[in-house]
């Protein structure tokens, strides 16, 4: 059942984003930034944790989950370090995802053979 919940919640998030791309004049970059900010806001209000508990990777893998990780890291760092945690917590909380993106990006750049589209 966990897989099914992850699948439909993640799919719903992606479908809503596709509707925003198709039906509004928002650029994809603005939609992506809005998702991260929405994830931070929802976690700051304490609402996104329930979605993560229900859907697991379906809620943490999309960009809403990146905002969730940033907010969760900041909250933890503020509790441990005070005001300094506001500046360090987001990077620490999302370090695993950022490191994975860099490593896999470099790996695929080495393995692929880019070609011109023309």
Please give a structural write-up.
The chain has 118 residues and is an all-alpha fold. The protein has one domain. It contains seven helices and no strands. It has helices at 2-23, 28-44, 48-55, 57-60, 63-81, 84-93, 95-111. α2 crosses α5 (63-81) and α5 (63-81) packs across α6 (84-93). The longest helix is centred in the first third of the chain and has 22 residues, at 2-23. It starts with a helix and ends in a 7-residue tail after the last helix. 24% of the residues are buried. The mean pLDDT is 89. Keywords: Membrane, Transmembrane, Transmembrane helix. It comes from Agathobaculum butyriciproducens. This is Stage V sporulation protein AE. InterPro entries: Spore_V_AE (IPR014204), SpoVA (IPR005562).
């Amino acid at each position: 059942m966990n897989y099914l919940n992850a699948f439909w919640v993640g799919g719903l998030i992606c479908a809503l984003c596709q509707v925003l791309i198709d039906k509004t004049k928002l650029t994809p970059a603005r939609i992506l930034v809005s998702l991260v900010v929405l994830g931070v806001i929802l976690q700051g209000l304490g609402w996104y944790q329930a979605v993560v508990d229900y859907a697991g990777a379906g809620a943490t893998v999309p960009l809403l989950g990146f905002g969730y990780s940033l907010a969760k890291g900041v909250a933890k760092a503020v509790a441990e370090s005070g005001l300094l945690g506001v500046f360090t917590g987001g990077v620490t909380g999302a370090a695993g995802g950022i490191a994975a993106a860099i490593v896999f990006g470099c790996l695929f750049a080495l393995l692929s053979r880019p070609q011109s589209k023309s």
